[in-house]
């Protein structure tokens, strides 16, 4: 049977102009069999959450290479809660210090991927978390 595809909304918020990581990720996620709904740069939390709901996405991925991620991620989490869409997984990556990875994962981000993480680790963790949290598939023993 063909494996169900993860539907993944990918975006950057605010004025962060680092487009290259988005291109690399978009290709890597597609190569791993996911459907990428590519919103690109200069997005807002409202637009991202609206797109995820409209597209019945399994996950949102936000990439940050500027300093303002804590507020942006907080707003995104609040909007997911307001829309009763907390089962949509939320992933964050980019230039995030180790202590903020811990903080963001504490407030509701499913996983933060820092520079140097291989695409294999990123895609396998995303698939595992989506299966468990969104599709509620129990892990194989
Ligand atoms: C290339 C680059 C640029 C290019 C961007 C070209 C482009 N079109 O993208 C240019 C020259 C334009 C640029 C500009 C600037 N840059 Co710059 N740039 C970089 C650089 C060297 C590489 C970034 C990159 O492409 N990495 C390749 C990608 C594939 O790797 P990655 O980002 O590490 O992502 C990995 C993981 O984090 C993860 N990941 C990332 N995002 C996501 C998202 C999800 C959902 C998931 C699952 C995973 C994930 O996956 C990747 C694979 O492991 C970094 C330094 C560095 N070595 O990281 C600085 C850096 C990001 N830039 C920096 C800065 C300060 C700037 C400028 C402000 C400089 C200036 N004063 O003008 C401007 C910003 C302009 C703006 N408005 O945004 C700082 C940011 C510091 C910070 N966070 O506070 C860095 C860290 C350099 C530094 N050491 O100071 N930059």
Task: List its traits.
44% helix; binds cobalamin; 5 helices; 5-stranded parallel beta sheet; 141 residues; alpha/beta; Rossmann fold; 22% strand; globular
Characterization of this structure:
The chain is of the alpha/beta class. It has one domain: 3-Layer(aba) Sandwich (Rossmann fold), CATH 3.40.50.280. The chain contains five helices and five strands. It has helices at about 20-30, 45-55, 70-80, 100-105, 120-135; strands at about 5-15, 35-45, 60-65, 90-95, 110-115. It has a five-stranded parallel sheet with strand order 2-1-3-4-5, sandwiched between helices. Helix 4 links the parallel strand 4 and strand 5. Helix 2 packs across helix 3 (about 70-80). It is globular, with a radius of gyration of 14 Å. It starts with 6 loop residues before the first strand and ends in a 7-residue tail after the last helix. The model has no long low-confidence stretch (mean pLDDT about 95). The site of cobalamin has 25 residues, from helix 1, strand 3 and strand 4.
Can you describe this structure in just a few lines?
By secondary structure, the protein is of the alpha/beta class.
**The CATH class:** Alpha Beta
- CATH fold type: Rossmann fold
Question: Could you say which structural class the secondary elements and strand pairing correspond to?
Answer: alpha/beta
Taken as a percent bin, the fraction of beta residues is 15-25%
Helix content: 40-55%
Rg, please? 14 Å
Total of domains: 1
Mean pLDDT: 96
Architecture per CATH nomenclature, i.e. the level-2 architecture: 3-Layer(aba) Sandwich
Write the layout of secondary structure elements.
Elements: E1 7-13, H1 20-31, E2 35-43, H2 45-54, E3 59-64, H3 69-82, E4 89-94, H4 98-107, E5 111-113, H5 119-134
Parallel strand pairs: 1-2, 1-3, 3-4, 4-5
Helix pairs in contact: 2-3
Bound molecules: cobalamin (B12).
Residues 15-21, 24-25, 61-63, 65-67, 91, 93-95, 113-117, 122 line the site of cobalamin.
